[in-house]
Amino acid sequence: MNEESGTQCPEEEKNVDKNVIEDLMGDYIYKKSLRKAIEFTEERLGEIGMCLAAEKKRKVINQVTSRIKSTDSIYKKMRRKSYSADRAGILKCNDLLGVRTVCLFMDDVYEVAECLKKQKDIRVLKEKDYIKKPKSNGYMSLHLIIEVPVGTGKNAGKDGDGKESQWRKVEVQLRTVAMDFWSVLDHQLVYKKEFPGAESIGEELKDYAVTIAELDKNMLGLREKIEHLNV
Ligand code: 0O2
């Protein structure tokens, strides 16, 4: 049975082997390229944040953090999505690398995303707007799946020619401080879904997602009023 959905697992799904994941994620050369992709993305977001802050004369990005997905989390996702139990299956996970960008205001989230999309050395593969269309639990965030170059010298940005690709996928999550605050609690609840009382906490949390969306809207409105104040 599938842990998450309670449905029957296809044959392939049952065979997902944690060792295959550990081998790939532990491989020194591969790991180095993952770190490089994260550094590249963090650095670029830092530059975008500085440019926008200089232009607007205020802080735009509050925090950039990153993570390499844990073996356990990759394993669960591969089972959930019925990915093949090999390297190709692991590489299908869009969020092996995650860079979270927390902005102060909602319009900043979209402006940072637009700046990132305009970068000539980055490929945008997919965009998921959970702010305009929140998930059923209330989760809000803008997800961009991008590819960044990790090759060096003449290999930079090459597609691989049958060898390892010189690009790595990174999931950039953009959200406001308030949305981030909410998602921290929600993430904790994910691991306690089976406990009595979890369902009603989930419902309460969903109500707060609405409160948070309103708060973000009101804070943006206030910021605009302050910007338009004349002496
Ligand atoms: P962890 O611990 O960060 O590894 P995809 O095939 O990847 O395009 P999928 O599987 O729906 O589609 O991925 P999605 O929606 O992009 O989610 C990937 C990550 O986004 C999650 O990673 C979370 O970090 C975050 N996320 C997505 N939905 C939720 C949610 O409802 N609540 C919270 N708190 N975070 C969410 P992991 O694997 O959950 O966790």
Radius of gyration: 20 Å
CATH superfamily: Beta Polymerase, domain 2
Inertia-based shape: flat
Q: Which CATH architecture is right? A: 2-Layer Sandwich
Helical segment tally?
Answer: 8
- N- to C-terminal separation? 67 Å
Major sheet, described briefly? 5 strands, mixed
- Which hetero ligands occur in this complex? ligand 0O2
CATH class designation: Alpha Beta
Helix content: 40-55%
Which parts are unreliable, with pLDDT below 50 for 5 consecutive residues or more? Answer: 1-13
Under CATH, the topology can be stated as Beta Polymerase, domain 2
**What spatial order of strands do you see in the largest sheet?**
1-2-5-4-3
Question: What is the N-to-C succession of helices and strands?
Answer: HHHEHHEHEEEHH
Would you count the extended β strands for me?
5
Your description of this structure?
The chain has 231 residues and is an alpha+beta fold. The protein has one domain (13-177): Beta Polymerase, domain 2 (2-Layer Sandwich), CATH 3.30.460. The protein contains eight helices and five strands, in the order αααβααβαβββαα. A five-stranded mixed β-sheet has the order 1-2-5-4-3. α7 (177-190) packs antiparallel against α8. Residues 1-13 have low confidence and may be disordered. The structure holds ligand 0O2.
Features:
alpha+beta; single chain; 5-stranded mixed sheet; 8 helices; 5 strands; 231 residues; binds ligand 0O2; disordered N terminus
Give a brief description:
By secondary structure, this protein is of the alpha+beta class.
